[in-house]
Design a protein that fits this description.
Layout lengths: L7 H8 L10 E3 L8 E5 L2 E10 L6 H15 L3 E11 L5 H18 L2 E9 L7 E11 L14 E5 L4 H10 L1 H6 L4 H8 L8 H9 L4 E4 L4 H13 L2 E5 L7 H9 L13 E5 L2 H10 L4 E8 L3 E4 L4 E3 L7 H8 L1
Parallel strand pairs: 4-5, 9-12
Antiparallel strand pairs: 1-2, 2-3, 3-6, 4-6, 7-10, 7-11, 8-10, 9-11, 12-13
Helix pairs in contact: 2-3, 2-7, 4-6, 4-9, 6-9
Length: 329
């Protein structure tokens, strides 16, 4: 199998089809496009999600915290804390472990959440450090949002820019190569600082307050992969206009130099929201300092990207471009 997130067909066959359900208190169960579980606690619900970080050399602790908490935010819930699992190969130094733990703790402080516990192990099963975080959050039962409730006629909104996380990773881990290709130091440093935008908690909480129909944070597979997952969860289609999709100038520069499709590039830090009141939601988001753009519409069927040259039918979620690039380099 290819490295990276398992594709949807194999996920259905090998994982989801083997999972049983017995507890009525579980309101959201494992499924395509649903990255968190929602558990009924009466007036409130608990929201939980787990994510590992692999394929990254720098800042993996911060990424792990933000990615897990972003899943919670995509359900409209406020993260409370994280459990962390840290697996290190025997060659790892004390200084490397300390650096990762400090990175995790700083990210938790920035998000005003607690580290609740976890497990740390030295093992030769892994060849490089692996960080996995389980985030837990809460909201009221009448406010949580899922991917499955997107409705035909909804406008599709993306916050910030597509390919945000992948741009920061490439600028950090391949800085020397980008310099050799002629990219200015200023652009590389600006791209590295995109990690400041990794959290989607503000837009997730605001989306829940505005009662949007669906939300999904953008992760592996980029905007197109995450939008495909949302459509799978809701059993709907979509039409988006590629020229409307916002890209940060550093993403445009880096993806062009490295021959990477920015719309298939891992994109934590951006959120997809669907709502019948697109302009109202965009106005509310932008008034709080969150860039937001309407890029298309949810339809009853068909998953279409309109480019300047043609219409492209998305029949499956794309492989993430970061994994493709790492495999080739």
């Amino acid at each position: 199998m290819k490295a990276g997130k398992i594709d949807i067909n194999n996920l259905k066959e090998l994982i989801l089809s083997k999972i049983s359900a017995t507890n009525d208190e579980v309101l959201v169960r494992p499924g395509i496009g649903e990255d968190s579980t929602v558990i009924d606690f009466g007036e409130f619900v608990a929201v939980m999600s787990t994510d590992p970080i692999t394929g990254v050399q720098e800042g993996m602790g911060s990424l792990a915290v933000n990615v897990a908490c972003n899943d919670i935010a995509a359900n409209g819930a406020q993260p409370i804390g994280i459990q962390q699992v840290l697996l290190f190969p025997p060659s790892t130094s004390k200084e490397e472990i300390t650096a990762i733990v400090k990175d995790i703790n700083q990210a938790a402080q920035d998000l005003e959440i607690d580290i609740l516990g976890g497990h740390t192990e030295i093992t030769d099963i892994v060849q490089q450090p692996l960080v996995s975080c389980t985030a837990i959050g809460k909201t009221t039962k009448d406010k949580f949002v899922t991917s499955a409730d997107a409705q035909p006629g909804d406008q599709i909104i993306i916050t910030k820019w597509a390919g945000l996380e992948g741009t920061a990773i490439l600028a950090t881990d391949f800085a020397e190569r980008l310099l050799e290709l002629g990219l200015e130091t200023e652009i590389i440093e600006e791209a590295q600082h995109l990690t400041e935008y990794l959290s989607v908690i503000p837009e997730g909480l605001l989306g829940a307050e505005l009662k949007v129909n669906a939300m999904h944070d953008i992760t592996e597979g980029g905007l197109y992969g995450s939008l495909f997952e949302l459509a799978e969860a809701a059993g709907v289609g979509f039409t988006i206009k590629e020229s409307a999709i916002p890209l940060h100038r550093t993403t445009e520069n880096i993806t062009e130099l490295l021959n990477i499709n920015p719309y298939h590039l891992i994109g934590s830090g951006a959120m997809i929201l669907t709502t019948a009141e697109g302009e109202k939601v965009v106005d509310k988001l932008t008034s709080t300092g969150i860039n937001a753009t309407i890029i298309g519409e949810i339809t009853a069927q068909g998953r279409v990207v309109v480019t300047e040259q043609k219409e492209i039918e998305l029949n499956q979620a794309p492989q993430d471009e970061l994994w493709r690039f790492l495999a080739e380099n």
